[in-house]
């Protein structure tokens, strides 16, 4: 289930954080992780019209990127977290 969700990351970045958070627990999954993955699928079912559309012919565009870093910000294992946002066009 996680593998099929990882495939959707290219066109649905809104679910990226949830997918990667669930993927961290693939070695020892629990019932709560299955519930979270099912919730992601229900979200996708309700938002089928959303996604990124890449036009075929782009003459020029501008890329702007923002990043965020927080050391020991994850409450699960106290590891550092990093977030990025890319704006195209």
Automatic annotation (TrEMBL):
The identity of this protein, by name, is: Putative mitochondrial protein
Organism name: Dendrobium catenatum
């Amino acid at each position: 289930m996680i593998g099929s969700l990882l495939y959707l990351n290219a066109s649905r970045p809104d679910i990226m954080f949830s997918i990667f958070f669930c993927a961290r627990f693939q070695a020892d999954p629990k019932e709560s992780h299955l519930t979270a993955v099912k919730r992601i699928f229900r979200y996708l079912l309700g938002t089928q019209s959303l996604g990124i559309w890449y036009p075929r012919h782009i003459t020029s565009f501008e890329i702007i990127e923002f990043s965020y870093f927080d050391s020991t910000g994850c409450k699960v294992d106290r590891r550092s977290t990093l977030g990025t946002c890319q704006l195209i066009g």
